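Before a computer can learn anything about folding, someone has to put a protein's shape into writing. The outcome of that step, for a single protein, is printed below:
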Amino acid sequence: MSPPIGLDRTTKTLKEMPGPSTLSNLIEFFWKDGFSRVHEIQLEHSKKYGKIFKSRFGPQLVVSIADRDLVAQVLRSESAAPQRGNMDSWKEYRDLRGRSTGLISAEGEDWLRMRSVLRQLVMRPRDVAVFSDDVNAVVDDLIKRIHVLRSQESDGVTVHNVNDLFFNYAMEAVAAILYECRLGCLENDVPQETQNYISALHLMFSSFKTTMYAGAIPKWLRTIIPKPWEEFCHSWDGLFKFSLIHVNKRLTDIKAQLERGEEVKGGVLTHMLVTKQISLEDIYANVTEMLLAGVDTTSFTLSWATYIGLVKETLRFFPVLPGNGRVTQDDLILGGYFIPKGTQLALCHYSTSLDDENFVDALDFRPDRWLRKDASDHVDNFGSIPFGYGIRSCIGKRIAELEMHLLLTRLIQKFHISVSPFTDDVKAKTHGLLCPGAPINLQFTDREI
């Protein structure tokens, strides 16, 4: 495709853009299991092909951007309703089951309508601060759970595979905010209903590579290899079933309160059910997707943060979402290349986070790089935007920060935390999200008061 008439003749076309061949990509991802090394492949390709390069996954052309300023250009030029990357498999499931889309999977006016309702409830710090007591109650239970787990070890201080512990904490805390109830994730015996949800969530991420990249896999292959798609649908069935149980329970309680003439008070879910600003189907979809998005993202970050240090530098070193997708809604000139409307972009956040051009000594873990000299000093850097940017940034950012900051503060107050000698050097791997590639075992030693 040639650039439109009138553009600078130095502007290059997509055909001239470098990048790996389709065959090498297929070998890398499907033969060498590159899906578990997406973050590493970002770095390798940006060094080999430059800060902007193209890749093909079957019929899907993707332009990858590993340059901070080009990422900023894309995000700052977005419309009122930016379009995410390919979510066709999510939408296909919803069409198949007659389900609505939520904030992760919706686009256009539907997304904008739901976002405008939900942002009023969870985007401002003062709105999220009201959940502090609920989250602190979950922290209390986590600390009790640490005492139980370490008492089972011969040294009396070690907790094995803390990501399981933090996963249960994150799920309990998010549910306390979204569902306005406790799930029992931190109890000695986790309720079966909650266990079923956890199994569905794990199944969802295990089927990630065959569904998020469904554009590269012809649908006719499902008749030959049906298992991946069946597991994907089964996992979503489990996630939606869980949400329906808890949303319907709260709805029943609200109706009973109204019949008794009582004032109805509550949090996020109650507000949505009472105001009816979005439909019941939209509520099912949004709480399902928000719980899905808010558990592993928080638990992985907590695992890394207790393993190596503080939250903001941890998120630079290990961005939970190593890359993000956008579809261009207008023609763009990026890095000297003409990018036509409708092109799939991949924003390579892992690569930009570890680029020395963006951060001095980028491979060194230095939390002090984020300190402000005074109130006017801003350390904003598009090289590291773990919660995204602009109107399509993470709607749960404040909730995640509340959960992480409250927990880490209280853990540090109560324990000396150190890495157990049973822990090997832990590398990152991609499993849908960027996560620890091996168990992290920590020692929690009581501080003297």
Notes: The chain has a mean pLDDT of 90.
